[in-house]
Amino acid sequence: MKRKLIVVGIILLVLVSASLPAKTAIEAWMMSVPETAFDDTPVPAAPDYSNARYWAALPDRADSADWVPHGSGYADAQATAPADVFFVHPTAAFYGDEWVAGFDNWLHTLAVDFGILPQHASAFNAAGRIYAPRYRSVRMPIWFSEDRDSVTKATDFAYRDVKQAFEYYLQHWNQGRPIIIVSHSQGTLHTIRLLRELFEGQPLQDKLIAAYLIGNTIPDVPWFTQIPLCESAGQTGCYVTWNTMLDGGNPHHWVGEKGLEKIECVNPLSWKADTVAVSKEANAGSIPMMDINAVFKRLPPMHSHVVGARCGEEGMLWIAGKPQAPGFTAALFPGGSYHTYDLNFYYASLRENALLRTANYLAKP
User: What is the pTM of this model?
Assistant: First the structure.
């Protein structure tokens, strides 16, 4: 009953916001930026990662990272999975009076639990046990603030939560198991730092199966000194990354705006860092946006052959045409960016690839 009420509440919010006056009011409420600098603005209470409340997903608890697509034949295998998955969610918080989201931000919690976790983290529930911390993440409107010093401080603040969560996980739950790092968008900003500070050149690097650093800019330079870009589907100890955009779109936000000419890209259908196009016929399964299936604790059915993939010379992941299947036509970002679908489009490929890399890692002497 509770889940049904949540879904109904979200639908009503969307319907109310459809009228112009309501839409204007809701946008103002959700896209507010603090009038004071970060240092002068109160911050939400800190998390306690020994308390399960501060984890969006844990392997020994029922949560939406356990879900699988309806009718897919997939099964949640965390109980016997040989690896661990540390997942850091993207920006999902809007409203608030702070630079970062507190744990009482109910809309943020709904977005993570009923949108992001099932659509992103669940792709890895066959290969590993999923640990996904809640953290005081930077709110969406903050990225557009003119106070760039406060944006940097808010980002650093959010990262400290992620690092604290990872260190708690290592100390209490990892027990020497191999690790898959998964992140999207803001989460990728934090996992890049995590890899640099805790993995590179340290014993923990030997435990890295792969890092899926999706939905953010990674420059075409030696971003890591010892962790390479993945060049093949079965390679381990490496990272993959991509940003999805419709052919003809403008990649300025991801490339030129960062002062770059090229960013890194690995094709999630071939798992190669080349510019060879892979047709949509090779794409076994994509997940549409979450819908009423959430009430039944499952994802919507997968669609096959929705999009192909091609890494461009500048490093964007291009799709040849706008998807026509229901559930794949919303949330198109400016410039033709399909940022929201970075993982959804390649759900089946991600699931299979995580299993392959894990098997290859475990087969090593």
Answer: 0.92
